[in-house]
């Protein structure tokens, strides 16, 4: 017998006592089901409680909301026969037990009222298929028809019914299987995994939004490579992110090979995930080398090259984000920047760590410089320890220089010391090309270390650059160097 003490303890919470009274008063069988029960057994935090009602979920939800009084908000989705009650940060979802039958070309089933058994039969995995009764005469009674508790203990993901039918009916479940494996660090049972491979192409009937939800949960999991490898093995990755599967494999000419850039990418991603929960930095790691498949060349003298893969990769980011329905605003720009700049710290080490190169890196990376350095350090996946130590040592040097120069020149959140408006006013210019040229000249002079990042120096430099363009200040008084009070 499995120890389900955790469930009994959980049911002592006032929300379940209240739900029990409501279920009795409406006179219908009521159960806690799904992810919530799974997470109690796993000792994991769960956001929302799923309640299954053999009867009308909406009726039970309304009654429950009215017993809570003013602070509760009730949302009813008549089309789906579901309802949701929010109360003090707790979300409870109510659904009536149903029986589902699917047609081939849609994941929208024909739905009829059903029994508890029907409802458990339509669920995705045994670990999500445990119901605990809330009615007072059977309070705490566990229904576990498919051995879900034992699968949770063994860490196994398996469909309750024939996996081919389960996945063909609703192909999103394939992504969910992989997501749970990655999130919970569980294993997908052999037959279930084989069925995912067989049904992978059915994923095309699933909307992009649903797929990306699951993919982001994989990306947010402790070791995202677990999920991505499973996606690759089953053929799902080829459908969702062909740019990544294109990085797979090692080609060899004249006995010279290159590293497998897919495996390298996964290693970098996991290393970043160890250090940071930032989803977008993880995306940056996943995509940092996608340009490599495009620019790969073999040269008889130098061997394999991937020139400009960072630039080409960065150019691929926005269309990839658009296709995957990822956010096109700051998140996309940040990921694009990570891909674009990921070779810069290395190049800096290889050439010479000059102040102006460090200043330019600080300027281009801005507030994201620490994330970029983290990505670049994770990018060193060589097996040669001596090489790794040398690189990390050099990066430590770069980091130190970054701190020194930032302290001195404040480049990280660079604001032009003389604004465009001021330039226009001083020289009596309309918005025009010379204004940009002067502003740019000042910025370049600061980045090259010709002048420090300060207002009086920038002001003087502005006068000199303007003079070269044949421009003079409109009022002589303004040529005096003002004090540094900006
Ligand atoms: P999480 O909330 O962490 O994403 P969950 O298991 O609670 O995980 P939900 O999407 O909240 O997932 O769904 C609640 C329950 O509904 C699941 O535990 C499962 O029993 C069932 N379920 C959800 N989606 C499907 C599906 N596509 N096919 C079959 N059953 C599903
Ligand atoms: Mg849930």
From TrEMBL:
<dbReference type="Pfam" id="PF01743">
    <property type="entry name" value="PolyA_pol"/>
</dbReference>
<feature type="domain" description="tRNA nucleotidyltransferase/poly(A) polymerase RNA and SrmB- binding">
    <location>
        <begin position="186"/>
        <end position="246"/>
    </location>
</feature>
<keyword id="KW-0692">RNA repair</keyword>
<comment type="similarity">
    <text>Belongs to the tRNA nucleotidyltransferase/poly(A) polymerase family.</text>
</comment>
<keyword id="KW-0548">Nucleotidyltransferase</keyword>
<dbReference type="GO" id="GO:0042245">
    <property type="term" value="P:RNA repair"/>
</dbReference>
<dbReference type="GO" id="GO:0008033">
    <property type="term" value="P:tRNA processing"/>
</dbReference>
<feature type="domain" description="HD">
    <location>
        <begin position="264"/>
        <end position="347"/>
    </location>
</feature>
<dbReference type="InterPro" id="IPR050124">
    <property type="entry name" value="tRNA_CCA-adding_enzyme"/>
</dbReference>
<keyword id="KW-0547">Nucleotide-binding</keyword>
<protein>
    <submittedName>
        <fullName>HD domain-containing protein</fullName>
    </submittedName>
</protein>
<dbReference type="GO" id="GO:0003723">
    <property type="term" value="F:RNA binding"/>
</dbReference>
<keyword id="KW-0808">Transferase</keyword>
<keyword id="KW-0694">RNA-binding</keyword>
<keyword id="KW-0479">Metal-binding</keyword>
<keyword id="KW-0460">Magnesium</keyword>
<feature type="domain" description="Poly A polymerase head">
    <location>
        <begin position="30"/>
        <end position="158"/>
    </location>
</feature>
<dbReference type="InterPro" id="IPR002646">
    <property type="entry name" value="PolA_pol_head_dom"/>
</dbReference>
<keyword id="KW-0819">tRNA processing</keyword>
<dbReference type="InterPro" id="IPR043519">
    <property type="entry name" value="NT_sf"/>
</dbReference>
<dbReference type="GO" id="GO:0016779">
    <property type="term" value="F:nucleotidyltransferase activity"/>
</dbReference>
<dbReference type="Pfam" id="PF01966">
    <property type="entry name" value="HD"/>
</dbReference>
<dbReference type="InterPro" id="IPR006675">
    <property type="entry name" value="HDIG_dom"/>
</dbReference>
<dbReference type="GO" id="GO:0005524">
    <property type="term" value="F:ATP binding"/>
</dbReference>
<dbReference type="InterPro" id="IPR032828">
    <property type="entry name" value="PolyA_RNA-bd"/>
</dbReference>
<dbReference type="GO" id="GO:0046872">
    <property type="term" value="F:metal ion binding"/>
</dbReference>
<keyword id="KW-0067">ATP-binding</keyword>
<dbReference type="Pfam" id="PF12627">
    <property type="entry name" value="PolyA_pol_RNAbd"/>
</dbReference>
<dbReference type="InterPro" id="IPR003607">
    <property type="entry name" value="HD/PDEase_dom"/>
</dbReference>
<dbReference type="InterPro" id="IPR006674">
    <property type="entry name" value="HD_domain"/>
</dbReference>
């Amino acid at each position: 017998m499995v120890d389900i003490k955790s469930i009994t303890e959980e049911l002592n919470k006032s929300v379940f006592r209240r739900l029990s009274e409501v279920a009795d008063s409406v006179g219908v069988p009521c159960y806690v089901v799904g992810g919530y029960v799974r997470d109690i057994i796993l000792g994991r935090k769960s956001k929302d409680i799923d309640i299954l009602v053999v009867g009308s979920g909406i009726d039970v939800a309304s009654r429950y909301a009215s017993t809570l009084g003013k602070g509760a908000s009730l949302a009813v989705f008549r089309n789906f026969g579901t309802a949701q009650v929010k109360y003090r940060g707790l979300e409870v979802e109510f659904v009536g037990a149903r029986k589902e039958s699917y047609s081939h070309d849609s994941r929208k089933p024909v739905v009829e009222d059903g029994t508890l058994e029907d409802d458990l039969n339509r669920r995705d995995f045994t670990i999500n298929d445990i119901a605990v009764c809330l009615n007072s005469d059977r309070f705490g009674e566990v229904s576990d028809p498919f051995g879900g508790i034992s699968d949770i203990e063994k860490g196994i993901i398996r469909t309750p019914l024939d996996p081919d039918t389960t996945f063909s009916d609703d192909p999103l479940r394939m992504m969910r299987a992989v997501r749970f494996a990655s999130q919970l660090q569980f294993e997908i049972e052999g037959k279930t995994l084989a069925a995912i491979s067989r049904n992978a192409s059915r994923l095309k009937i699933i909307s992009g939004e649903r797929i990306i939800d699951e993919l982001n949960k994989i990306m947010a999991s402790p070791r995202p490579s677990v999920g991505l490898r499973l996606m690759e093995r089953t053929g799902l990755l080829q459908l969702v992110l062909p740019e990544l599967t294109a990085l797979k494999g090692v080609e060899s000419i004249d006995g010279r090979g290159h590293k497998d850039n897919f495996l390298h990418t996964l290693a970098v991603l996991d290393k970043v995930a160890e250090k940071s929960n930032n989803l977008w930095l993880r995306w940056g790691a996943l995509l940092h080398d996608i340009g490599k498949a495009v620019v790969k060349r073999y040269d008889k003298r130098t061997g394999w090259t991937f020139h400009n893969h960072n630039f080409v990769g960065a150019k691929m980011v926005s269309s990839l984000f658009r296709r995957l329905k990822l956010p096109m605003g700051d998140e996309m720009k940040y990921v694009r920047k990570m891909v674009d700049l990921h070779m810069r710290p290395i190049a800096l080490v290889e050439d010479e760590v000059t102040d102006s190169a460090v200043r330019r890196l600080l300027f281009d990376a801005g507030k994201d410089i620490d994330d970029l350095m983290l990505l670049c350090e994770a990018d060193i996946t060589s097996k040669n320890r001596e090489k790794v130590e040398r690189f990390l040592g050099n990066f430590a040097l770069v980091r130190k220089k970054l701190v020194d120069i930032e302290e001195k020149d404040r480049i990280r959140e660079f604001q032009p010391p003389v604004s465009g408006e001021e330039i226009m006013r001083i020289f009596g210019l309309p918005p025009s090309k010379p204004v940009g040229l002067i502003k740019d000249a000042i910025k370049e002079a600061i980045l090259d270390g010709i002048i420090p990042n300060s207002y009086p120096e920038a002001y003087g430099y502005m006068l000199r650059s303007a003079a070269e363009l044949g421009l003079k200040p409109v009022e002589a008084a303004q040529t005096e160097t003002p004090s540094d009070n900006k």
